[in-house]
Amino acid sequence: MNTTIHVTIDKQTKEKAQKLAKEMGLDISTLVKASLRTFVDTETFHVEKSDRITPRLKAIIAQARKEYAQGKSFGPFSSKELDKFLLK
Questions:
Q1: What secondary structure does DSSP assign to 56-72, as a single string?
Q2: Is 54 buried (19+), middle (13-18) or exposed (0-12) by CB count in 10 A?
Q3: InterPro entries, from UniProt (predicted)?
Q4: 66, HSE (Cβ side, Cα atoms, 13 Å)
Q5: Which end of the chain lies in a sparser environment, N or C, as judged by fewer CB atoms within 10 Å?
Q6: In the chain, which ranges are continuous DSSP H helix?
Q7: Is the pTM of this model over 0.85?
């Protein structure tokens, strides 16, 4: 037997959630159901959008670009050049 949950949330959050879910090929109902099932199965709560770059990764990329500009690093490589460099 199924049951219904009513949730009150501000309009802006709902709209942003709907947009993000749609980008991921989901609707809000599917997202909520999957989240609750995962929460029950794992007894944990974790959410992420994997294609976002974290501030830490941004800093690493910026540092690598700086080092490359200063001639302190190697690259960019084609896949063949990378294989040759790594297999030396």
A1: HHHHHHHHHHHHHHTT-
A2: exposed
A3: Arc_rbn_hlx_hlx
A4: 6
A5: N
A6: 11-23, 28-42, 55-69, 79-86
A7: no
